Amino acid sequence: MDDFLSANWAERYKDMWNRNETLVSGLKGFSALIEYGWEDGSRPSAFLEVQDGRAVGTAYGSAPRKPDFVMKASPENWQRLRDGSLSGRAALLTKKLKFQGSMITAMKYMGPFEQSIALLGKA
Known about the structure:
Elements: H1 7-19, H2 21-26, E1 32-38, E2 46-51, E3 54-60, E4 69-73, H3 75-83, H4 88-93, E5 98-100, H5 103-108, H6 110-119
Parallel strand pairs: 1-4
Antiparallel strand pairs: 1-2, 2-3, 4-5
């Protein structure tokens, strides 16, 4: 699966996140450490630090602190999220995307969440 969820991917994703002004402004007031990982734990996770809607840092392999949100999926479901054949909302509701964190916060920011998922395959 190319370098998806690698350190290089995380940096590209951070840059794309910050270039998407609709995403950044839609997450104004949102700050969190987000983990993107593999459902079976077979490979290290990538981490994105968000402060006031802007992606400010990445990590790979180990988190700088306990993540606020964790999203994990199988390689097949990550691929479907990346190519757009599975939406973030549908993945959450069908548990194809394993999610840990405040569901209330996730629902509040569902529009920007969908945009961030759409960026996964572009990074």
